[in-house]
Structures are given as structure tokens and as C-alpha cells.
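retry 2 of 3: previous attempt timed out while embedding iron/sulfur cluster. Reduced batch size to 1 and resubmitted. Inputs unchanged:
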Amino acid sequence: MGKITGFLEIDRKVESYAPVEERIKNYREFTLPMEEKDVKDQGARCMDCGIPFCHSGCPLGNLIPDFNDAVYRGKWEKASEILHSTNNFPEFTGRLCPAPCEEACVLGINEDPVTIENIEKNIAETAFKKGWITAKPPLERTGKKVAVVGSGPAGLAAAQQLNRAGHQVTVFERDEKPGGLLRYGIPDFKMEKHVIDRRLEVLKEEGIEFKCGVHVGKDIKAGSLKNDFDAIVLTGGATVRRRLPIEGADLKGVVQAMDFLGQNNRRVDGIKDLGEEILATDKDVVVIGGGDTGSDCIGTSFRQGAKSVSNFEIMPMGTPDRPKDQPWPFWPMRLRTSSSHKEGAERFFSISTKKFIGDEKGNLKGLITSEVEWVTVPGQRPQLKEVEGTEREWKCELALLALGFTGSENTIAEQLGLEMDNRTNIKASEIDYKTNVPGIFVAGDQRRGQSLIVWAISEGRQAAHHVDKYLMGESALPLKGDGDLPRV
Ligand SMILES: Cc1cc2nc3c(=O)[nH]c(=O)nc-3n(C[C@H](O)[C@H](O)[C@H](O)COP(=O)(O)OP(=O)(O)OC[C@H]3O[C@@H](n4cnc5c(N)ncnc54)[C@H](O)[C@@H]3O)c2cc1C
Ligand code: SF4
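retry 2 succeeded.
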């Protein structure tokens, strides 16, 4: 374990941030690296619990006490091996995961939990810096060919695992470059894109082929993949955006968050031909939706020079502490304040947008809201009710709709005859990721709906095991809970 008395002696410490006025001048990551000694001290806080609840909190089943101990002892290469045995891309989760493991950490019952996510990032960065992350192509090829459709974290994890098993993997991606939401959703200030590129180089060197700019179902028929490949893994994400069908929703200036974020990430990448520019510069911006996407819109708006940014959330304001009805080790629904929120956005809760107002040229100039409350009637789902006399008009030239996603696009499913579930995701069991059509598997947001990077990587890994088993009759690819033990 870490230091036996570490948790008694050492306080939790995480990376600090560059000051707001500095960081909003550019799109660079703004966390300030910690001294190696401080990271090792944080590893020393781990109690090596008899039942490490952090394991079950982590969708990947990361071997957390083991890598905490290795870090405490300065055995960074060992820590990297342990971490990579369950997580293909700890440099993504170490930056971006909301860390359900930390909510489940036993130390969190009456102390601040171990800084698991930050330790993970430091392990991954040390491993890259020291040159320990190198291509490990399979020793033998099986002669089987697998198509992966979609190159987000689920697709990349599935591809790497299947390639390790010796299959020839081709990843199809309709965007210009691989990465999914990591590249064209999440802003650079949360993760700079060279972090994806350096990992892609390893994947390519291992023998994975990437075909970008290919929209499966449009540029090539999904059915043709069935002829050319022995198995298909669908990892296309949950890309259907939720709309706000109210008066004025067609005005110029009412924009889907993903159009705004995707365009900005391409701009930061140096792409010139962006179509009609969507910019928050000198505007009063309202971001509708209080989740991750909304938060990313806030940070991006400030970096573009917005005059003001207001953030609306239809749900009531949570408490910063864990609510009593959501005890440890469960993931609590509480008020979360991101670094972007702290850059100057004003947040409003229990608020609903009723109407957008335009000028004579069809440009957005304001919007109308009212306060709402959730009314509970026994035996029924909670109902949203407007609070009378709370109508308010806001000045606003850019409204960003960050309302989440309703499910997966259905073109591929139609072309391949796949069943959808009642949440419009492609239907497949969480046990073996098989769809109703033999040889076709689905993983990540396209199967589970809008979720998290850590879940996407987990599903990609799990699905790869079952694809391998389908192709070969057995699989040595690890499943969650196996750690680095080979499995047959
Ligand atoms: C703005 C935003 C911020 C987020 N921030 C966080 C965060 O901080 N932390 C976190 O854990 N999660 C975050 N998430 C959620 C996380 O990004 C997703 O859960 C995760 O990326 C899902 O991975 P995936 O591989 O299933 O799908 P995606 O990442 O959505 O990738 C799917 C890929 O498939 C491609 N594709 C789809 N259909 C086709 C087709 N027919 N042919 C070819 N290619 C196709 C798409 O172009 C895309 O590249 C965020 C989401 C958004 C929208
Ligand atoms: S629950 Fe927390 S203290 Fe216990 S082993 Fe996991 S990280 Fe360490």
C-alpha cells in the first residue's frame, strides 16, 4: 500500500489552474503541473482498502490501489503497466473523466478522496515523456478483417484491442481526423489535440488503418462492409441533438452547441474553410443547458471575447455536498462547478426558455424565460410547472443549445436491419455487445446513449473481447475485472 499513515498526514492536493484572465486569452490547456514529490505524496494517501470501492466506481475496473502504491514508491514504469492493463487511453480519462472512482473512494467517507484522476494523468504523461508508450504490433495475424465505424474513444479502444488479438482492423470515420467528440466536441483548453495525435501514431504503427472522410451509410453502403469484413463494430456515438422547438428557434443566432464547438475546434486546428462563422465575440451569450457541453460553450465563448455569458439550467440548483439520499459510494447528483463556470458565467437554475425574439432581419436579439418548479404527484413522474409572474426578457445575440442528445442516427441500422431500443440507440446486450445481426456489434454512446469517455473505452474493450470470441471461438483479450491476467 501507499504510506501506512499517509492519509493521516497528507492533505489532498490537485493541479491548480492558470489565472482566468491569462487562460482565456488562448485555447491551451491551463492546468499547472505538480512537482513529482507532490504526486507521490498523493499516492501515499491511498489506504489499499481490503475492498477497494474505487475499483467498482471505475467503469474500467482500473487497478487503482496498485498504481497508487507504485507512484508512491516512484515506480512509474510499473504504474504505467498497471494502468494500461485496464485503460487504453489514460491520458484522455486523466484529463477529462469526472472520476466516479473518487466519489467511491473509501477515504471520501470522512476525508477528501485520493486524487486518483490526477495521478492517472501524471502516470500517462510520464510514460509518454519517458518513451514507454511504444507500438506493440501483434506477433501473428489471424487473417480476419474487422471494420470499426466511428473513431471516438469507443472505436479507438475496440480497434486497439482487436488489433492486439491479431485481426486486421480498419476504422472508418466521416470527420476529417479521428477522435470523435474528443477532437470535434471537447475544446482544446480541456484537451489539446496533439494528445490524440500522439496516441494515433502508436495505433497506426501497430497496424490499424484509418479511413477518414468516409461516411458509412452515405459514401459507402453499410451492407458492403458485411461483404468485405468478417465482423463490424459500430461506435458512431449518440449524435442526434435535442432540439428546442419554441417560437423563434429558426432565428439567426440560435445555434446548436455542437455546431459552435465543432467549428471552433476546427478553427483552432487551423482549418480555414469553416462555412458561415459562428462567433460569440462582443455578444451577450446565453447557453441553454447546464451539463458538460454547456460548460464547454461557456469557456469557448469567453475565449472568443463574449460580452457576457449566462447559463440556464431547467433543473433546480443542487447542493455542493453529497445529498443525504445518495450516500457513498454512489455517484451523487450535486452542484458541479467547472473551470469554465468559474471564468465569469452567471448561472441560473429552475429556468425555462419560452421564446426567442428576433429583429426585422431575422437576427436573434433576445429571449423570454420563466421560472419553473417540479411538482410531484404520487404515482406519477414529476411534472414541470411554470411559476406565474416570473417571465423575464433577456438581451442575447447568440443562444447556444446544449440540451444533450436523443440517441443514435438510424441510417446504418436501417441499411443493416438492426433493431433500435426504446431510447433510439442501437440495441445490443451489455453482456456481449451483439446486435440482432450476427457479426455486427455496437459499443459506446451508440449503444448506451450519451455517456462518458471512460464508459466508451470500457465498452470498446468489452466489445472487442466478444468480437474476438465470435471470430476465433475463444479470446485472450481481458474483460473488466481481469486486470492484466490473460483470459481464455
Ligand atoms: C461537448 C461535449 C463535452 C464532453 N465532455 C466530456 C468530458 O469532459 N468527460 C467525459 O467523460 N465525457 C465528456 N463528453 C461525453 C463523451 O465525449 C462521449 O461520451 C464519448 O466521446 C463517446 O464516445 P464514442 O466513441 O461512443 O462516440 P463519439 O466520441 O461520439 O464518436 C463517434 C464517432 O463516430 C463517427 N461516426 C458516426 N456515424 C458515422 C458513420 N456513419 N460513418 C463514419 N463515422 C461515423 C462520428 O463522426 C464520431 O467521430 C462530452 C460530450 C460532449 C458533446
Ligand atoms: S478506495 Fe480510495 S483509499 Fe481505498 S484503495 Fe481505492 S483509492 Fe485507495
